[in-house]
Structure formats: C-alpha cells, structure tokens
Write a structure and sequence with these properties.
The protein is α/β, with parallel strands linked by helices. The chain has a single domain, classed as 3-Layer(aba) Sandwich (Rossmann fold), CATH 3.40.50.720. Strands 7-6-5-4-1-2-3-8 form an 8-stranded mixed sheet, sandwiched between helices. Helix 1 crosses helix 6 and helix 4 runs parallel beside helix 5. It is globular and about 50 Å long. Keywords: Oxidoreductase.
C-alpha cells in the first residue's frame, strides 16, 4: 500500500532565486499547499512584486547567495517571520553559454559563486538548523547537465556536477538523522536562462510549473533523485551503462551536443548581460513583506538571480 503524501500545510519553506522562473512557480505551488513560503532574490523589488502577486502570505526578502552574511540574515528573517525552517530550496542559478576558452574569468567565477558556493553556503546554514531538530528537507536544484557535460556550457556543467556530488555526500552524512535531501535535475526549462537554446531531438523545454510540481512531489514523498521530466532519469541511467563512444554517438544523434553550443547569441544577449555579467547591490537593511492577495501573472522584468535552471 502506497504511503500517504506528507501534508505540507504550515511547513516553513525558503526558496532562493524565488522572484521568477522555477523559484516563483515553486513558491506558488507550495503556497497552494498551505506552506508558509519566503522567497529570497538579489532583485528585491521584483521579489516584492512577485510576493504581492502570489498572495498567500508569501514573504519577500533581499538575498545575495554569494554573501554568507546575507544568506544567514535571510534565513534568520525567515524564521523570525514564519517560524523554524522546514525546507530550503537552493534554486538560484545562472548560466553562461559559449566556447569554454572564450569564457572570461569574471563570468566563470560568477557562475561558481552563485551556482556552487551559494548552494554550499545555503546547505550548511540549513543543516545547522535541521540537524539539532532531527528534521528538515534540503532541496538543491541542479540540472541534467549535472549528469553529463554539455558542450557550450562547460563551467555551468561543472557547477551542476558539483551540486549533484555535494548533495549525494550530504545525504550520506546525514543518514539516520531525520534530515532529507533531494537533487532536482531538469532538462532546459522555459525561463530566461534558456533563452536562445537549441532543442535536441525528442527533448524539448519543460515549464517552470513542471519543475515546481516535481519539487512538491519530492517533499510530499521524499526521494533523492528528481528528474524533470521523470522519463529523462531512465535515459541518464541507461547512458551510464553504455560504452563512452556509443553514449557520445547517441548524444550527437539526438543533437544534445548542440543544445548549448548552438545557442542563438542575440536571443541570449539580454539574459547574459544582466544575469551573468550584471551585478546588483542589496539595500543595507532589507525589509521583508508579507502580502495577501492577487493571482499569479507573468512578469517581464528580468531578475539577476531568479531563473534557477
């Protein structure tokens, strides 16, 4: 007999990069389940608008995941406002596309700082809360690029491989403690991060709501590996059993080697400029807001750290 899904009503959930994309969709899905949700984002103004639109008491806070002090303050404010943290979704991430040898040191460092160091920092800060309570769920958003290196996104792939390895190691360390972990590994998601990407044969974009639904499902029925779509997990596992020349030939046949390497640079220009090369400063004392209300609608304002993957 299948276990009943866990009730998420009243659970305190913090989501990084929550102003749009996967983060926003996840906040909306969890709020509908009755969870108490806080979204953190470098673009605090957009986070506030998102909270207003989602309603359900969603709390918006400024957050720079590359700054440990900012991350610590974010979680402290979440707990002060909503109560002890039950779930952290490390979603914030960026992606640069282009030949590896042409990638600047600045762009490479920024991806590592946000995609990896941000997840490391958030994971530690969450576990410091979860372990003494013998409860909590750490959700780290990686990518299918965390299972196979993708041409045209070498540094991005490296950060996502690292997030997969990090979360697997954490899982082994906290086994038996009551703390749970999940790694979310979607194919490209229809957010600004995926602007201008090519489609592989038989593999299209998934929508942010699909990733959000998978995250909610992993919280209700905990599991470690969360592929989106779920069927891609079978493809990844099958590929791991193939000899490398066969695996690479299949990738070329499916044109997965062109998804990033063949990206339209002009279509990605705005995203790359703002998310990858841009910067933003948080106010000295970010204020949280909790807003009731309006239904969800799509925003056109770009967020520097909210796309997720």
């Amino acid at each position: 007999m299948a276990k009943q899904p866990r009730n998420l009503a009243g659970k305190v959930v913090a989501i990084t990069g929550g102003a749009r994309g996967i983060g926003r969709a996840t906040a909306a899905a969890l709020a509908r389940k009755g969870a108490k949700v806080a979204i953190g984002d470098l673009d605090r103004e957009l986070a506030e608008r998102t909270a207003q639109e989602l309603g359900g008491g969603v709390v918006a806070l400024g957050l720079d995941v590359t700054d440990r002090g900012s991350f610590a303050a974010f979680l402290e404010q979440v707990e002060a406002r909503l109560g002890p943290l039950d779930v952290l979704v490390n979603n914030a991430g960026i992606m640069h596309v282009g030949p590896f040898v042409q990638e600047s040191e600045e762009v490479a460092t920024r991806q590592v700082d946000i995609n990896l160091h941000g997840v490391i920092t958030g994971s530690k800060l969450a576990l410091e809360r979860f372990l003494p309570r013998r409860a909590g769920h750490l959700v780290n958003v990686a990518s299918t690029a965390g299972k196979a290196g993708v041409p045209g996104g070498a540094t991005y792939s490296a950060t996502k491989h690292a997030v997969v390895g990090l979360t697997e190691a954490i899982r082994a360390e906290v086994r038996g403690s009551g703390v749970e972990t999940s790694i979310v590994m979607p194919v490209p998601v229809n957010t600004q991060l995926a602007a201008g990407l090519q489609k592989g044969r038989g593999i299209g974009l998934v929508e942010p709501r699909e990733v959000a639904e998978a995250i909610v499902g992993a919280l209700e029925r905990p599991r470690q590996d969360v592929f989106v779509p779920r069927a891609i997990g079978r493809t990844v596992r099958l590929g791991a059993l193939m000899p490398r020349p066969v695996y690479e030939a299949v990738g070329r046949l499916m044109r997965t080697d062109r998804v990033l390497a063949g990206a339209d640079a002009s279509a990605r220009a705005a995203y790359e400029r703002q998310a990858v090369r841009g910067s933003a400063q948080l106010p000295a004392a970010p204020e949280e807001i909790a807003t009731p209300g309006a239904g969800e609608r799509t925003e056109a304002v770009p967020s520097r750290e909210a796309a997720g993957d």
